[in-house]
Amino acid sequence: MRILIIGSLQGELGVAARIAASRGAMLDQAETIESGMRLLRLEARIDLIICDVSRDLPRLMAQLANERFTTAVVAAGAQDDEAAAVAAIRAGAREYLPLPPDAELIAAILAAVSTDLPSALVVRDPAMLALLAKAEQVAQSTASILITGESGTGKEVLARFIHAQSRRARAPFIALNCAAIPEALLESELFGHEKGAFSGAIARRVGKFEAAHQGTLLLDELAEMDIRLQVKLLRALQERCVDRVGGDRPIPVDVRILAATNRDLLAAIDAGRFREDLFFRLNVVALHIPPLRERPSDIPTLAQHFVDHYAALNESGDKRLSESAMARLMDHAWRGNVRELENAMHRAVLLTPGALIDADDVSIETRHVAPVANAVSARGEPGMASLVGRRVGDVEQALILETLQHCLGNRTHAATILGISIRALRNKLRDYAAQGAVIPAAHNGVAA
Ligand SMILES: Nc1ncnc2c1ncn2[C@@H]1O[C@H](COP(=O)(O)OP(=O)(O)OP(=O)(O)O)[C@@H](O)[C@H]1O
After folding, report:
1. Per-residue pLDDT reduced to its tens digit, 423-443
2. Is the overall model pTM greater than 0.90, yes or no?
3. Nearest CA to ligand 1 atom 9
4. N- or C-end of the chain: fewer Cβ atoms within 10 A?
């Protein structure tokens, strides 16, 4: 883990930094928010920022949001300064680290941040085991790999597994969700930009390609990339160098590319939305992850894995699933795949006080449309009568917001279930928010 400390290392914050280093963290330090942001733009591999509360924390948070950094921030300040702690959390800090620092607390914070990183691969199904064996076999090569599968099947965890098995394991693994970045900014996100390259380019920033130098770059939801940018991506792959936006010379990069998508790229090629030459370049090796409903033998192992994980995280003691709870899980369609199962187990752990999680403690819904619930049965068959008299726009809004709620705020997942692009979903949410609707917050570190 790499931590950026913003503040002086002279006092107690320095003690906290040394404790973090003794627990294996790598440290960067900056005295001011400006110099911290500079480091972040050029380093782009920082997992956590610890910021002294004497610095302008709200400004740091605003700046991070503005530049689309999702790095977690922990505020550090005096133990008895309750007002500072409240202000820090209100400003968006993940935690408040009281000073003088407590070694155990620092260890707990580091553990909490690293649990945000995707967990290890848990696999039991024979088809998945065969897929892992193939992934392991190709991991050593430098070939590009195209990972396909429905949303939530584990494409990113598989990509991390490949990186970990490769000769590049010690270099960075960088993931970029192409759908989560506004189209106009994706080029600079990929290739970086020079200061003043466009309005808003307040300083030079390295792109994900440079950040992943000698390591692996995962281009997630690649099908969402604009066709003009696909041309630039192809050139970067062929020539092994990138042009920063506003830059005047190509910069050599050594990056292994993994691409992931839940769309049918061949259909996108036919529709003229995806370049065939880029497809062939990326699809040197193809790995397809089956949906969870097609590998039921993974369900019990994964379910217990998530129960153990969240029980440990919440310090709620050992828990296990009853036979009837397990039967319920086996019976469910899991449209949201492993992500949906993980969320369901997280909820079950939080809501079950005892050691045994029973069927009733597992809240999974087969329906996806609550406010028009009367109109859609548990099996998903529409009952049109109760929809009559409602405006199309209202029904659509209810459908979108309830689906988002069902996905615990996860935009990517909700867009997949709704069958619309994540961009279209974001636009709708923006409109609803402007009209005063309450929008479910994004969890799991997913950008709003
Ligand atoms: N085999 C697995 N073992 C353990 N955890 C898994 C496994 N597969 C998926 N997960 C977990 O499920 C969640 C979703 O996985 P991941 O983000 O890799 O899916 P994805 O296919 O990339 O989704 P999307 O297409 O929406 O980006 C993550 O929290 C991940 O850690």
Report:
1. 889 889 988 888 778 888 775
2. no
3. 154
4. C
